[in-house]
Amino acid sequence: MGYFSRVRGLLQFICILLLVSNCHGLLQRRKARRSFKTSVIKSESVRSDLLSQCTLYWRNATLNHFSFVKYKGVDKAFKQRYYVCSNYWKAPTSTSGPGPIFFYAGNEADVLLYLNNTGLMWENAPSQGAMLVFAEHRYYGQSRPFAPWPKSGLKPYQLDYLSTEQAMFDYVELVDEIKKEFRAEQAAVIAFGGSYGGMLAAWMRMKYPHVIDGAIAASAPIWNFFGETPTYDTGSFAQGVTYDASMEAGSSRNCVYNVRAFWSTLSRLAQTPEGCALINQNLNLCPDSTVSSPSDAEAVRDWIADAWDNMAMGNFPYASGYILNGDGQLPPFPIHEACRSMATDVPSDMDLLQGMAGAIGVYYNHSHLTPCFDYKAGVNDETDAVDMLWDFQWCSELFMPSSTDGVNDMFWPAPFDAAAAAADCRASWQVSPRPLHAQREWGGRRIEAASNIVFTNGLLDPWHGGGGLTVPVGA
């Protein structure tokens, strides 16, 4: 069998298995900035049976692949982490070529999170004789340029090398190094990725087809940008979250209605001191994190909506710590669990407040050890660290608009304000978004020249609205 026939056969085999899979993403909407931390997964959350099959490697990664000039005070390289798991790999012999390389294009978290949760790679490695490689995305996990990082965080110029293009070229060099080290120059390389990692996998196949022979892009919202034709529906993410909370998706009958009613109740109560007291008591807010004004209530609103967004992204049918970056665990179908607290038929103000406290507790009190809620804090340090770095990427090159309307979703009317978002990005990072950058760089929906890319989307995943749900004309 020829090389390209082997690649096509391998992708077809994996596609059959994908028909019964449902992959959700980690990619997050833009959030408020919090203190700067590092995004390292807790070691006790990693499956030892998987990790024991892998070898940890470090490489000297080039900081700036696209400049030949060394700037004063800027190092040329940084230490990048990756894992090679070769137990099942079919090494080349005198009579047969090597087995394929399954390459996980790491996204915005510690690489061990993906080693621990990318079951499709592990499940297919034995039958395909595949080597597994899990690469860590620059700046995330322990692959940190300019390390050690100060508590105050990196300066904007130090974050200038945090981009998809730089990360992808890291992976191009890594594939080349691995092939040489293992004498696997003829091995087919299949890139895997979920959410942002799925975007990277697909884009690598498009941009570096001589390096990546095929890609499995799960929950990859590559069309979640300005400039698409037809236009991307900015409300699709919120509609996806709402679907997860609906009866059609298995949630309680009144959940969507009651969640939608909660926002106006919160806003109305925040107008008076008595109403603020009801909010603080029934939402179980901590004494140093109380609501005393309408602006406080807006901050609480956004913090609560963040819980629903993340529970929808982690709405797996089994218990999982994936969406918590390995620090804790959500129950099976966390949205269903949250909706049980929002099931009252004719709720009073107190019912809505207490019900919402129970609902967001599925996420913010996943440990069942949180005595009260601090709406000024995230769910854990690991997730805060990811959010911080992702915020820079969102502000610079991955300007992904989202909106809510309170009619087709269970939130409140909030059209996307690109000008306000850009102003906030300048204030936060001293960068201005380039709204059309992704569409111009990667081609938007005009990817008919690409090949050997499998896009998979679970309809319970709210990112599917920006994913590859249809085959481009001419593909």
Automatic annotation (TrEMBL):
A biological process term (GO) from this entry: proteolysis
Gene3D superfamilies: alpha/beta hydrolase (3.40.50.1820), Serine carboxypeptidase S28, SKS domain (1.20.120.980)
Coiled coil: none
GO molecular function: dipeptidyl-peptidase activity; serine-type exopeptidase activity
Pfam families: Peptidase_S28
Keyword Ubl conjugation tagged: no
SUPFAM superfamilies in the cross-refs: alpha/beta-Hydrolases
Signal sequence bounds: 1-25
Keywords: Glycoprotein, Hydrolase, Protease, Signal
Protein family membership: Belongs to the peptidase S28 family.
Protein name per its UniProtKB record: Lysosomal Pro-X carboxypeptidase
